[in-house]
Design a protein that fits this description.
By secondary structure, the chain is of the alpha+beta class. The chain is built from six helices and 21 strands. It folds into two domains: 201 residues, Elongation Factor Tu (Ef-tu), domain 3; 149 residues, OB fold (Dihydrolipoamide Acetyltransferase, E2P), CATH 2.40.50.100.
């Protein structure tokens, strides 16, 4: 009987142990299942279609896009030296009238102002006298030459007449050159019809950039009266630092950004690269010709440039679709969930490496293979990462 009783006790204890083990097994499975769901929740973000619209998150496949490598450069808009002119008085005189204001368009030879001074009248009077004397001396020279050739006149008299004639002719030629600089009509002056005022002409086509005189002001021959600039050949003069010089060459395209044009982008092409460094800062001048000149382009305007050094073609997303976390970069893939009353989306982080950046877009290279139909979030990557981390914090408590 005692042996049978011991057998019953051992059997009962074995059953208890088995039941206990089975109970622990069920708890472990439930715990593992809970951990899987917990992990899945931590690594994703759920958004309804209403939330998606509120955040303005677009969902689409990753596009192939041209992403350019570029060199940043700053500078100014400039014109070639031959397209700028400083107008002086040539002779000391008083400003009688000014015919232009700053910003006026002028043609080459157009009067900018009129000058008057007794010296101008005297110059014309001297010209008339010397010219008339030259006419008389010219006739006398021809007469003496004929007598000399016929061996009737004196050779000495002929040589003196010739010397006087040539000397006076040089004086008259000099006076004519001075009067021509004022644009005066010599035939009119020879008819004793003198100019009381002389014009100051524009030497080039262009616009009046600066007026530096006033009516009644006396100007000396060296005085700067006007500045004229021709914007037809305006270009970008950019400064490229020494470290980037090896990347730049003639023929490369440049995107120009001008603040005065609301950062409108203009296209340009490099046509000249400087061969000497500026000392401060150590940089080289790069000249780029603007393709289509639109808007008000004024020399001296500050301009930012991006010199395209390489043009790659690859997957790219807007910069706000990529988030940096713990020195790693992520984008968010998107899966749709259909419900009876609404549609929701689940976003999963996908680690990527980044490449070139261009005009708000960044080249991306996923570390795991994706298909051409994989959909991703175009933007709000920082928000999605923050929501995912917030979910992790809630589940950790």
């Amino acid at each position: 009987m005692r042996n049978r009783f011991n057998i019953y006790i051992m059997f009962f204890a074995s059953c208890v142990v088995l039941l206990s083990c089975n109970g622990n097994g069920r708890d472990d499975n439930a715990s593992n299942h809970k951990d899987i769901e917990h992990s899945h929740t931590q690594e994703s973000v759920h958004l309804t279609s209403v939330q998606l619209d509120a955040l303005s998150i677009q969902i689409d496949t990753i596009p192939l896009r041209s992403i350019a490598s570029y060199v940043e450069a700053n500078g100014k808009l400039e014109v070639p030296p031959q397209n700028e002119a400083t107008v002086t008085a040539i002779i000391g005189a008083n400003v009688v009238s000014i015919k232009v204001i700053e910003g006026d368009k002028v043609r080459k030879g157009e009067p900018l102002a009129y000058l008057s001074h007794p010296d101008l009248i005297k110059m014309q009077s001297d010209y008339i006298n010397e010219y008339n004397q030259l006419q008389y001396l010219g006739q006398e020279y021809q007469r003496q030459q004929k007598l000399y050739e016929e061996k009737v006149g004196s050779g000495k008299q002929f040589q003196k007449t010739k010397a006087d004639y040539l000397s006076l002719k040089g004086i008259v030629t000099g006076l004519e050159a001075q009067l021509k600089q004022f644009g005066l009509n010599l035939t009119r002056i020879r008819s004793n019809n003198l100019y009381e005022q002389v014009p100051v002409h524009s030497p080039i086509d262009g616009y009046v950039r600066l007026v530096e005189v006033k009516t009644g002001q006396y100007v000396s021959p060296q005085s700067e009266m006007f500045e004229i600039v021709n914007n037809d050949h305006i270009h970008a003069d950019l400064m490229v630092f020494e470290k980037d010089m090896h990347k730049v060459k003639v023929g490369q395209k440049v995107n120009l950004f001008i603040e005065s044009l609301d950062n409108q982008t203009l296209q340009a092409n490099i046509y000249a690269v400087g061969k000497a460094f500026e000392d401060d800062p150590k940089a080289v001048h790069i000249h780029a010709d603007i393709e289509e000149k639109s808007g008000l382009l004024i020399p001296g305007t500050y301009v930012r440039g991006r010199i395209i050094t390489d043009d790659n073609y690859g997957y790219a997303l807007p910069e706000d679709a990529v988030v940096k976390e713990n020195n790693r970069y992520y984008i968010f893939t998107a899966d749709v969930e259909l419900h009876d009353d609404d549609t929701s989306w689940i976003f999963y982080p996908l680690e990527v490496t980044t490449g070139s950046r261009d005009n708000g877009w960044v080249e991306i290279k996923p570390l795991k293979a994706i298909t051409q139909t994989t959909k991703v979030a175009f933007g709000s990557a920082y928000y999605l990462m923050a929501e995912m981390k917030k979910g992790e914090a809630e589940h950790s408590h």
